[in-house]
Each structure stands twice: as C-alpha cells, then as structure tokens.
Specification:
single chain
C-alpha cells in the first residue's frame, strides 16, 4: 500500500491535507446551525452537500492513514517533531463549523439558559424562545437533547455562560469561543501526557489521535476538558502534590462526573507512599474529601444549584448503538419480556456493577504494585465506557489518553489505537449515525486487528515512561 512508504514529514503533510479536507467539507456537510445570520455556515444544495460529504470522508481517511503510518514510524524508533505535526493537523479545523456532533449547540444554549435565569437541571434548551439569548443555538440542538436537562457540572456551565456573555450569543462567535476552550483542553492533555513521562509515541496515541481531533477540536466535546483536568491532577499527584491534584480532579468532575474514577487511583498512590493502615485510610478517604469540597464550593460559587446530582443518569435514557449493555438488554427484553425497557434497565445496572468490579480489581492490582496506577486508571475508564448504558465514540478517549501517557507501546494501547481509528467513522460530519458509518468502522476495525496480529508491540520494547524524580509518589511500570 502506498501509505506504507510515506516518511514522517510526508505523514505531516498528508494528515494536514486530510484535516483541511475535513474542514472544507464541513462547510457544507458539517453539523450546521438551523439559523446563522452571518451566512458563513448555511446549508447548500444537495449536490454540493453530497460532494462535501465525500470530501470530508476522504479527508478523514487521509488523516487516519497518516496517523496510522506515523505511529508505526514512531514505534520503529523514528524521531520527529510531534508537536509540529499536531499543530499542522489541528490548524485547519479551527475555523470549521461544528463537526460530527451538535453538542456544542447544547453547550451554548445551556450557557444562555443560566444567563436568562432558567434552571438548566430542570429543563432543556427548548425553553429558550426566539427572542432569547442563545435562541439560534437552542434551535440547532439535535433530537432528544432539545428537552434534556444538562448532565454537566457547574464549572462547565460557568465556562459556557462566559462564552455566551462575551459573544452575545451570536452563534458563529460562540462556537469559535467553545473551540478556544477545546484548544485549551488539548494543551492540558499534551502537558499532562508529557509530564507523566509520555514521549512522542504517547502524544501520537493521545493528542494526534483522529478521534480526538475530530471530536474534541472539530466537535468541541467537553470530554477533552475533563480529560485534561483529570490527567493534570493525576500528574500533580505523581509529583507528591496530591491535594492540588485532587482539586483539579474535583474540577474535572464538575465538567463530567466520570473523572471521579481518578480519585481511587490517586488514593492508591497515597496509600503506597504512606504505607500501612494509616496510608490505606488516607488514600481511601482524603482524595474524596478534597474533591467533594471542591465540587460543593464550585456549585455554590456558580450559583446553578446542586441539580447536577440528579441529572447524571439522564444520558442513559437515550439509546446508543455502541452501548453493549443497552443493546443486550433491549434484545432480551424484546425476546423474553413484556416490554424492552424493564429488562434493559436491569442489564444496564448489571453492566455498571461489572464495571465497578473491574475498576476495584484494577485499583487492587495497582496497590499491590502489579500495574502502574496511571495505566490502571486508563484501563478502568475503558471498562467503564464499555459497560456503560450510554456510549459515544469519543468516550473511548477517557481511557486512551491515560494509557497513552505510560504504556503507549503495549498490546492494549495498540488495540485502543485500532478502536480509535474505527470509531472515528461511526458518526457522519452532520452528527448523524448512518448505517454506512458502522460498516466502514467495522472494516477499519478488521484491518486494524490484522495489523495487531502481524505486528504486535512488545511491552517496554520502545520508548515509554521516564523514571519518576526523587520525591515524587512511586509509579512502577509493569
């Protein structure tokens, strides 16, 4: 295949061309707003839209191919300027309309709801009328989310509120304002991954990942900010500053709640450092107390109330095809139950219990020194995603970025890379989930598994985590 002969610098150009094609195609085939007074992101004719869709998919394929080849070169020991490559691949997406998701319109609408005095935890964006601040964003919110209360914490709502206030709710400036937040999230991820010992390969898997570029930069999902704050907190914990680390994890929880899993592994680090019963007690209790205090304080300061405590499960009421427990529960309910929902609910709960069991098992292994706590955190988050009642493609990044930081050259990371490449195709540029997206994702997954079988990465055989400096909390690599 021709891409197997491309050099590292050639990958930089190829990926940039792909990213540019994604952005240009998105001008007609992206997740465009329902109303946009500036005339920049307006729907086009069917012929132009079709051509733009083909261009966007071709660009995504170039980006994935370039990333795949770039990773193989880095795994083989080729040295290159990875941060320069990241800049090249990211820049074309900065002025594009929202790509592959309409979630950013929900973010803007929820920020406007706070400013307009609405309870974001009691109603959805549909409460905003035509003359209200953020009305264009509210009109562009997709499907079920129009009437869904915000499942996000108050810290994120404060950021969304600030963007709406600074831009007057105008949809194009507000979207670009949210993209600035996404860029900040990317910078945090890069800083944390490098600080945790990740070299070029780690940045390849975490930051250059097409799944991240498309959904965090292109789609502006707040998962990127959650990951950046969470990993930054974990980094500080590995350097002995676990209290400040828990503060950052607490802030990450106030973006999205799954960041709380990191507290368990920070607790493991504290327990291993202090030793004995006292160390275990400190590790089990103190990280949660610090993060809980941050969550309570942030809620009070934000003034949005504690409604986020009751909206954490609202997303689970919306069926997504990637959720194995939802699919299995739905199938069993249709076959053996009077109705699918009760059976599906039971299977979803069993899935979450299984996820908790896996997370606790990984924490136990980390406490015993059998696995790096950061790697354990990444695998725990992957397990949580796999067994959750609602799964979106970009949720995989929760665990991928943590695993990448300390174990990018392992078989598990290689499999996560394959999954990342496949899931990049699951949603269309419009944010829809067409059948052909699953077909392409399946083909990419199959090709990737063949690659893993033919070229397995041996743990520790390539660049990995650097030793932790004296005075830092202990981190052992398996």
């Amino acid at each position: 295949m021709w891409v197997s002969r491309v050099s590292a610098s050639g990958c930089r150009w190829l990926g940039a061309a792909g990213s540019l094609a994604v952005a240009v195609g998105g001008l007609a085939a992206g997740t465009l707003p329902e109303r946009e007074p500036w005339g920049l992101w307006e729907p086009r004719g069917s012929g132009i839209t079709l051509a733009a869709t083909v261009l966007a998919y071709a660009g995504l394929t170039l980006l994935v191919a370039a990333w795949w080849r770039y990773g193989r070169l880095l795994a083989a020991g080729v040295r290159d300027r990875v941060l320069v490559t990241l800049a090249w691949w990211t820049t074309p997406l900065l002025l594009a309309p929202p790509l592959h998701s309409a979630d950013v319109y929900s973010y803007i609408a929820q920020g406007a709801m706070v400013l307009e005095g609405h309870d974001v935890y009691g109603a959805g964006p549909s409460v905003l009328g035509p003359g209200d601040l953020g009305a264009d964003a509210a009109a562009s919110v997709g499907g079920h989310w129009t009437d869904t209360p915000a499942p996000y914490g108050p810290v994120f709502l404060v950021l969304a509120q600030a963007v709406v206030k600074l831009t007057g709710g105008e949809i194009v400036p507000a979207v670009l304002g949210m993209r600035l937040i996404a860029l900040g999230a990317l910078a945090l991820i890069v800083w944390a991954v490098r600080g945790l010992g990740g070299g070029p390969g780690a940045l390849w898997l975490a930051a250059l990942n097409p799944l991240l570029l498309v959904h965090v930069i292109g789609g502006m999902h707040n998962d990127g900010l959650m990951i950046g704050l969470m990993l930054s907190g974990v980094l500080l914990a590995t350097r002995g500053r676990w209290v400040l680390g828990c503060v950052l994890v607490g802030l990450a929880m106030m973006i999205k709640s799954p960041a709380a899993v990191a507290l368990l592994f920070i607790g493991v680090m504290v327990a291993r450092r202090d030793g004995g019963v006292r160390g275990v007690a400190r590790g089990l209790v103190l990280p949660g107390l610090v993060a809980g205090a941050v969550a309570a304080g942030a809620t009070v300061v934000a003034g949005t109330g504690f409604g986020w405590l009751r909206t954490q499960s609202v997303a689970g009421t919306i069926h997504t095809a990637l959720s194995l427990t939802s699919d299995i529960g739905l199938g069993l309910g249709l076959l053996f139950g009077d109705g699918p929902e009760p059976v599906k609910g039971v299977v979803q709960k069993l899935g979450l219990l299984a996820a908790v069991a896996v997370i606790l098992a990984l924490a136990w292994r980390a406490w015993k020194g059998r696995i790096d706590p950061v790697r354990g955190l990444g695998l725990a988050l992957v397990a949580l995603v796999a067994l959750s009642p609602m799964v979106q493609p970009w949720y995989l990044l929760w665990g991928v970025c943590a695993v990448a930081a300390v174990a990018w050259d392992t078989r598990a990371a290689q499999l996560l890379a394959v999954l990342s490449a496949a899931l990049a195709y699951e949603t269309a540029p419009t944010g829809a989930t067409p059948w052909y997206g699953f077909v392409v994702a399946g083909l990419v997954l199959a090709a990737g598994l063949v690659w893993v079988r033919r070229e397995p990465w041996a743990p520790g055989s390539r660049s990995g985590a650097v030793p932790v400096a004296s005075g830092h909390l202990e981190r052992t690599r398996p």
